[in-house]
Amino acid sequence: NKNYKLVIVGSGTGGTATANKFARKLGRGAVAVIEPTDVHYYQPMFTLVGGGIKRFDQTSLNRSELLPNKVDWIKERVSKFDPDNNQVTTESGDTITYEYLITATGLQLNFNQIKGLEEALAEDPAVCSNYSPKTVTKTFPALQAFQEGNVIFTLPATPIKCAGAPQKIMYLADEYLRNAGKRDKANVVFNSSLGGIFGVKKYAEALLPIVKRKNLTCNFRTNLTEVNHKKREATFVNLDTGEESVYEYSFLHAVPPMSAVDAVKNSPLVDETGYVTVDKTTLQHTKYSNVFGIGDNCNLPSSKTAAAAAAQAGILSSNLSSVMNGSKPTAIYDGYTSCPLVTAHNKCVLAEFDFDGEPLETFPFNQAKERYSMFVMKAYMMPTMYWRMLLKGIWNGPKPVRKLLHMGMSR
Ligand code: FAD
Ligand code: UQ1
């Protein structure tokens, strides 16, 4: 029976950043990270792999290079959370107890909730998904193989990580097909369960003319329910009218429904939505004061991104340290999140906003405009910042940069 001052479950973006922060604060042997997989993926780069701009081998590093040697890495999956007894159980049956817990388990991809999708991904080279490391490598070859017909992109009827990613790959595909001289053979369609192109008005107003210029058809409130790869047909249902429509496809980029992972969903840490209930400003659990949550597994009303997890890491670190010292958590998360909407191989709209959907832009120019500089930031600067700063616990989001560039005039 192992006992730690702090146990962190999950070592993705949020778990690795906080592991590095607390290893420095608490020293050797105080922190355990429970994470079953060897490889850490920089998921934001999956979009560029799908678009043929980066190679898959550029997206990952071994966890041993990322976790500090002061933490104990328990290479297992947590199967049960028991916060009433301050313990978790792993798949092999080990019990680990803690004084403090951070849940950072991210999201589970539920491909099986769409009839026929798993089979289609396994057997049809024209069906792909940037969302999983197992399927992202299919996307660019599928585009290259395209001859003519419907090129379809989907977005499911659940919260997802990086809600912009389902359309970013459409913009890259459109550009690829134009350059390959095949765009006039393609009917490019975005069937999205959402009610509009993007949740924040400023960026939606910037994206709609881009959609129009590129001649992309958008159908909203339209949810993928079934894929029949033998007939190359995809079935969608209108979420308001219940009406079904069947599309033949020549290329299908499918985004699976998502949820918190089963062990979290089935734990006392969640409410009826199935996400860890944290106070949205302090990130402290609403019921268990020695538990904090970070990243995609939380019920936070902000969009689920690595950029959000970075900002949360700073807040969490400050507040959990306060609680460990017997004081009240006082740092406040404003909901900061960011979505670099790649619109071409050299253009990007950099959306940044808070809980209320109010823009919270870092740079002193209009980020709703497509810019080369923001593409360079996304494709060439951000990966280094992620590996060397965010994961090492020394990047808490761009707030200080924003303040500086706005001469203190920004929130
Ligand atoms: P994750 O980083 O997903 O980590 C969760 C970890 O928990 C995993 O390592 C997993 O193995 C582990 N785990 C799960 N269950 C258990 C268990 N039971 N026990 C122990 N460990 C467990 N974000 C941006 O900021 N910008 C972007 O441009 C962007 N683009 C994206 C494009 C795509 C295609 C995708 C898929 C994501 C994108 N994101 C982007 C989102 C970003 O990757 C995630 O929001 C971020 O990684 C979430 O961090 P996290 O720590 O919550 O979860
Ligand atoms: C960011 O901080 C971040 O985490 C490292 C991302 O995740 C990959 C992002 O995509 C973005 C855009 C930010 C915000 C950073 C700046 C400099 C605007």
The percent range for helix content is 25-40%
* CATH homologous superfamily identity of the largest domain: FAD/NAD(P)-binding domain
Question: What is the level-2 CATH architecture name of the largest domain?
Answer: 3-Layer(bba) Sandwich
Task: Please indicate the percent range of residues in DSSP E strands (runs of 2 or more).
Answer: 25-35%
Mean pLDDT value = 97
Backbone shape: globular
Structural class: alpha/beta
What's the end-to-end separation, in Å? 46 Å
Give the low-confidence spans. Answer: none
* Radius of gyration from the alpha-carbon trace, in angstroms: 21 Å
At the first level of CATH, what is the class of the largest domain?
A: Alpha Beta
| Count of all domains | 2
Number of strands: 21
- CATH topology assignment of the largest domain: FAD/NAD(P)-binding domain
Characterise this structure.
The protein has ten helices and 21 strands. With 411 residues, it is of the alpha/beta class. It has two domains: 2-106 and 261-334, FAD/NAD(P)-binding domain (3-Layer(bba) Sandwich); 109-258, FAD/NAD(P)-binding domain, CATH 3.50.50. The strands form six sheets. Strands 1, 2, 5, 6, 7, 8 and 19 form a seven-stranded mixed beta sheet that branches. A five-stranded parallel beta sheet has the order 10-17-11-12-13. The longest helix has 19 residues, at 306-324. It is globular. The relative contact order is 0.15.
